[in-house]
Design a protein that fits this description.
The chain has 210 residues and is α+β, with helices and mostly antiparallel strands. It contains 5 helices and 8 strands.
Length: 210
């Protein structure tokens, strides 16, 4: 990934605004399309917002299909591609627990809940090297990209960029669950963006960085 080092304060904002983020490779576009289709399918299912702690199977554990939170949209979409974030996050946390946020008073990883927490997903995606720059330009967000926000009340949130665009703003629509169940809407710039990731693994999953 290109890194733009700008020494001139006067021109920094200009060059940063013009710096293009990495383009999506054709092979990645296929994965992105499948990921988005899996997320879109969830919008057809009635899901009640429920983030309560539940004991899950491992691997492949999930809360009942009729409940979920924002992270469950992501987890379920990747599972349709054969990728289990429950396992990946848990195994990485066993290797580097201190690299993850210490916000919940835990002494070690917990595969029942860790992958369902936005801050943990942010760390995992950063550690596997798929973090991109946060941009205020709609064109920088591509189908299949993951975006995180901070909602009012310091509530972290995550969603998937779809292939559809708003007829009003031109912004890519986001598939997410903000409390009403999985839905697609124009909300990319509705809240403070805290992260931008493009994780489109094929056969080989990137190994987390030390």
């Amino acid at each position: 990934m290109s890194v733009y080092l700008i020494k001139s304060v006067g021109y920094a904002a200009f060059f940063l605004s013009m710096a293009a983020l990495p383009k999506v490779k054709p092979s990645d576009a296929v994965i992105a399309s499948k990921l988005v289709a899996a997320a879109m399918a969830q919008t057809k299912i009635k899901v009640s917002y429920d983030g309560s702690y539940r004991r899950l199977d491992y691997p492949g554990g999930d809360v009942p299909a009729n409940i979920g939170v924002c992270t469950d949209v992501i987890i379920r979409a990747y599972r349709e591609l054969g990728i289990d974030l429950q396992v990946l996050v848990h195994e990485d946390m066993k290797l580097a627990f201190k690299a993850y946020p210490q916000l919940w008073g835990l002494r070690g990883p917990d595969y029942n809940i860790d992958h369902r927490r936005v801050p943990n997903l942010q760390v995992y995606f950063t550690r596997v090297g798929v973090k991109l720059s946060v941009s205020q330009r709609a064109v920088d967000y591509h189908e299949g990209d993951l975006v995180t926000w901070m909602l009012p009340g310091n509530l972290p949130h995550i969603g998937i960029v779809s292939s559809d665009k708003s007829k009003t703003t031109g912004n890519p629509l986001i598939i997410h669950n903000i409390g009403r169940g999985p839905e697609i809407e124009d909300m990319l710039f509705a809240y403070e963006i805290t992260g931008h990731y493009r994780w489109l693994p094929h056969k080989v999953i990137a190994e987390p960085r030390p």
